[in-house]
Amino acid sequence: MFAMRMKLAPQIIKRESFKPIYIHGKRQGLTFALQLAYYRGHYLSDIDSLEVLIDGKKIPDEAMTFELNGKEMPLYKLKYAVTEFWRQDDLAQLHLLLPNGLSGQHEIGLKLMLRIPYMQIGPGHTFMPLDSGETITITLEGEKNE
Predict the structure, then answer these.
(1) How far is the C-alpha of 43 from the C-alpha of 36, rounded, in Å?
(2) 19 burial class (0-12, 13-18, 19+ CB within 10 angstroms)?
(3) Are strands 64-68 and 134-140 parallel, antiparallel or unpaired?
(4) Which of 23, 47, 86, 100 is 20 to 30 A from residue 2's alpha carbon, by CA?
(5) Mean pLDDT across the stretch 98-116?
(6) Which pTM value belongs to this model?
(7) Dihedral of CA 35/40/43/45: which sign?
(8) What value does the CA radius of gyration of the chain take, rounded to a whole number of Å?
(9) Partner residues linked to 24 by β-bridges
(10) What is the pLDDT of residue 39?
(11) DSSP-assigned beta bridge partners for residue 131
């Protein structure tokens, strides 16, 4: 599939932002920040797909939420967020629920496809796709008392 690609920031997935999520004192997930890779910004409703893969395995949509400007929502609600604008310099947060959390070295893949609503490239409602994804390898610390 053809898609436009612009990477204006050195990191889309912010390596220094990874933090564990604790539920009832137990590590049950992780959160990290990401930056949009397009200079104009986008409404959240322009996100066509958002996936996170850990070591090649897709995290279920139901196990993730997206947060921007203090508003957290499940992925299925992104298409309805027609007034929520993601500026290029704003960091969004992804929150992932993962049984037993995550530690050690892992490949984190972000598949983030947006449509550019002012660049119609075909009949009907076919708009230019924008690839704002990235894959990194990161080492996450385990529990201090494990």
Answers:
(1) 11
(2) middle
(3) unpaired
(4) 86
(5) 88
(6) 0.86
(7) negative
(8) 16
(9) none
(10) 74
(11) 5, 113
> pLDDT tens digits, residue range 130-144?
767 888 999 988 765
> Distance between CA 31 and CA 34 in Å, rounded?
10
In whole angstroms, what is the distance from residue 12 CA to residue 91 CA? 9
146 pLDDT band, cuts 50/70/90, is very low
Residue whose tokens read 């390898």: 137
- 143: tokens are 């529990």
Residue 38: what residue type?
Y
Say if CB 27 and CB 41 are below 8 A apart.
no
- What percent helix, strand, coil does the chain show, rounded to 5? 10, 55, 35
Q: Is 144 in a helix, a strand, or coil?
A: coil
pLDDT in tens, 28-70: 999 999 998 877 788 898 888 899 999 999 999 999 999 999 9
pLDDT at 11 over 90: no
